[in-house]
Amino acid sequence: MRNLNLIFKSKLLYQLSVLWVLMIFGVACTDDYIYPDEEPEWLGASIYDYLKDQGNFDNYVRLIEDTGYEPILGRTGSKTLFVANDDAFDRFYNSNEWGVSSYDELSMAQKLLILKFGMIDNAYLIETLANYNNNGLVYGAAFRRKTSSSVFDSIPFLKGDDLPANKYYDRFRDKGIHLMKDATPSPIVHFLQKPLQNATIDDSDFEFITGESRSSDSLDAHIFSHKVIERDIVCKNGYVHVLEDVMIPPSNIAEIIFKREELSEFSSLLERFSAPYYENSLTIDYRDYNREFSDSLFEKRFFSYYGGAYIYPDGTPINEELLLPFNPEWNSFSRSGLDNSLQNDMAVILAPTNQALQDYFTYGSGIILKERYGSWENIPDDIVVLFLKRHMRESFLETVPSRFENMTDSENSPINLSTDDIIDSHVGVNGIVYETNKVYPPDDYVSVYGPVLFSENTKVFNWAIRQNDFRLYLNSLVSRYSFLVPTDQYFDNYIDPIAYGKDIPAAVKYWYNNEEETVYATMYDYDPATNTVGDSISLITDQPFIAKRLLDLLDAHVVVGDIETGKQFYITKGVNFIKVIDNNGNLTIQGGADINNNEKIDISAVYEQSNGKTYFIDKPIQTSLQSVYKVLSETPEFSAFFELLSGFPATSNSSIFVRKRNYYGIDYNIKFFNTYNYTVYVPTNEAIEEAIRNGVIKSWDAINAIEDVEIQNEEMIKLERFLRYHFQDNSVFINGLPLKGRYQTATIKTNSDITSFLTFENKYYKLELESDGGDLVLSTDTKVGGDLDGEDVAKVVTDNGLYNIMARDYVFNGNPQAYLEVDGTGVGLPFENTEITTSSSAVIHQIDNVLRFE
After folding, report:
1. Band of pLDDT at residue 585, cut at 50, 70 and 90
2. How many Cα atoms are found within 13 Å in the side-chain-facing hemisphere of 518?
3. Taking CA atoms, which of 32, 376, 437, 544 is between 20 and 30 Å from 340?
4. Share above pLDDT 90 across residues of the chain, in percent, rounded to a whole number
5. pLDDT-derived band of residue 154, with 50, 70 and 90 as boundaries?
């Protein structure tokens, strides 16, 4: 029976509420006056009369009267009011952040703040507060709601130490400034059953965040941390909800951090990215609102994507890299930046204490930061902003304790936040501040990119990394890298690959222009015959050109894995080769061209990072400038093999060397190379001659003498397949370490014969390699039971130095001869239009026998 009574009362309350709303809005449609004189008798008293009649809301009644809201709250209308009784005010006067001990000590601004911050300009039951309109009604998802408060309710006047310590506030240090912390009103934050349930935020999450307990079973409701102790009191002009305590407007999260002494260092980092902005329209409006005011109003804004500023106060644009993800001062924060999504989420900042910041400098991975800059204050803005971004979260719903273990940053990198890290939490009008005893450095600080980011001597590579979005690659903590970084003072005499293939070869010096914060390229005359650099011949300032050229260098200076494994040869990210020589722990580096020119690169510093090592080197690595064609054509010992490769008619589909559209390089490229690394096995001249004598292959003289075109084509195809079997996917060096494995060649199997390595039809024949570290033996994929079964074996010749030869086939965006020379002479498109489209690398070994698969 008792339950039936409760159900009946609930239904009755709902029906009366619906009828009341219909009555209000129905009358409003026919009467221009919003508060009609006639009201239904069943609605009872107005909000003002109800509070006055109760006898325990004297403080609130005085607030209404003193602020001039008696006519509004005493008539019909549509208001929601959160109030506190007189006992709550007595507790408030005993202890509050305003320092007032009685009602009479409240200023008019404070009275307005209490009253209007607890007022909403529509009528809401507690449960309907959970709904909001966003191009249609969204049910049970709201956490915030706009109030009746105005930015004009309280205009702070600040001077001296009350202002952030950055240059933008200096002109106001002595005279002071009327500074609105934000030009949008402060909303309330409500924790209600439906939104919490729908967002799977449990009671323990709520208690951790607010310090207050709640019960989902009892459908507890809280405004900030203030419990609603009496709800849904129906009055003729709205609803009254009674809070356990007096509610005064909390600060936004930027001000929470700014006011806490233990967060002062983090706050100073954050405040670097704020400035005061003159608000002309608000100044005019406020002068109308307050006739005694004749000064100017300024708004504090942070440099940010959402809710903040894109330009400095003087009108100059802010570099995108210096923008925070959102304005922490923005009371109306919304994740999408749109006003209509204010209700469904809010921001979070992880704010390390002063002690946490110092501990990171002293004991953590931040030691390298301290060594470089000495203090947090000295760290440049472009480095600090990365730190701040890591600590700023755009979603409260994704940053509750039960989700800490799965949290990632905007670049999908784990944050590893624990509840043990949280000292305290604070709920502001636009989000949550978690006060932490740890810092959460960005991957930029701990990855192999970190030393480049911090150093004053690596600006060229740092610029290249930023221009090419290369930092995300270097910041991957699931991989391990060796990152070789030429320092700025040695970033010269790099041979430009495209200029190398033109009439005026050129060396280039990349250098950082501090004034313009960009990289320029000075081109110098270069003599390939003597490997000498002459006078400067041109200056290139084209940023896309320089960025793309430097991307090629970046790819050639990163090795996935360690380069201190005992091997000598390593493949870089850009599919190039480097040679590492270990002289009793002192490493020297060489690229292919460095080896040819007998130049070595020394390491000046090594940094052990979370995902590998960063090596500062005294010269850019010069990858090979010789193509496979060039190596084979200019090495006498390779002449017989080269003659076979180069004998195909230019129009033949079997041709191997090509120089045409999509294949333009320094000279000729291998047609079937495709942005990968390869091995080329070159039989000795004697082995080729013996194969011709034995009828294994025909010479070009013999093929060209064939009169039957069909037979001639068959012989060319047979020769092409024979030659392609000497090209192998994957580069294999004689590398000082044992090796055994099978590798795919460039010849496709066209029959179903069973072969040594069980290769299927239409798949590529393989080679089997075996090495003890000082030699390399090859076995071929021959027909099982055939004449060659188990007999066709070759070995790399190592006694004449014709092995481990590095080559690189470049592919340019066009014929190098179609562009102007680097000094601007000639005919054609500007040299800055040239691009390295891609490249393939190959290691070349001489072998003592030909390779046969049939």
Report:
1. confident
2. 13
3. 32
4. 84
5. confident
CA distance 179 to 107: 19
pLDDT-derived band of residue 172, with 50, 70 and 90 as boundaries? very high
Contacts of 278 (CB under 8 A, 6+ apart): 296, 297, 298, 313
Residue 95 corresponds to which amino acid? S
Question: Do residues 706 and 713 touch, judged by C-beta distance below 8 A?
Answer: no
DSSP states of 711-743: HHHHHHHHHHHHHHTTEEES-----SS-EEEEE
463 phi, psi to nearest 5 deg? -60, -45
Which is nearest to 556 in space by CA: 598, 601, 489, 605? 601
User: Is it the case that residue 42 has pLDDT exceeding 90?
Assistant: no
C-alpha atoms less than 13 angstroms from C-alpha of 213 in its C-beta half-sphere: 3
For residue 494, report the phi and psi dihedrals to the nearest 5 degrees: -90, 130
Residue type for 553, please? L
Q: What pLDDT is stored for residue 117 in this prediction?
A: 96
Burial label, 248 (beta-carbon count in 10 A; 0-12, 13-18, 19+) = middle
* Phi, psi (deg, nearest 5) at residue 609: -115, 175
Q: Which of 67, 102, 107 is nearest to 86 (CA)?
A: 102
Please state the φ and ψ torsions of residue 126, each to the nearest 5 degrees. Answer: -55, -45
**Contact, 150 vs 282, CB < 8 A?**
no
End-to-end CA distance of the chain: 97
Instruction: Give the Cα separation of 140 and 147 in Å (integer).
Output: 19
Q: Could you tell me where the beta strands, DSSP code E, fall in 672-783?
A: 677-683, 727-729, 739-748, 764-771, 777-780
Residue type, 365: S
Q: List the beta bridge partners of residue 794.
A: 778
Q: What is the spatial distance between Cα 737 and Cα 262, in angstroms, rounded to a whole number?
A: 56
Judge contact between 366 and 374, C-beta under 8 A: no
Cα three-residue angle 569-574-576, rounded to 5 degrees: 35
Tokens of 555: 């790819």
* Mean pLDDT of all residues in 470-488: 96
Pairing status of strand 518-527 against strand 532-540: antiparallel
Residue 227 CA to residue 222 CA, distance in Å, equals 4
* Alpha carbon of residue 258 to chain centroid: 27
Tokens 């979070």: give the residue.
348
Going from the C-alpha of 321 to that of each of 62, 595, 609, the distances in angstroms are 51, 40, 24
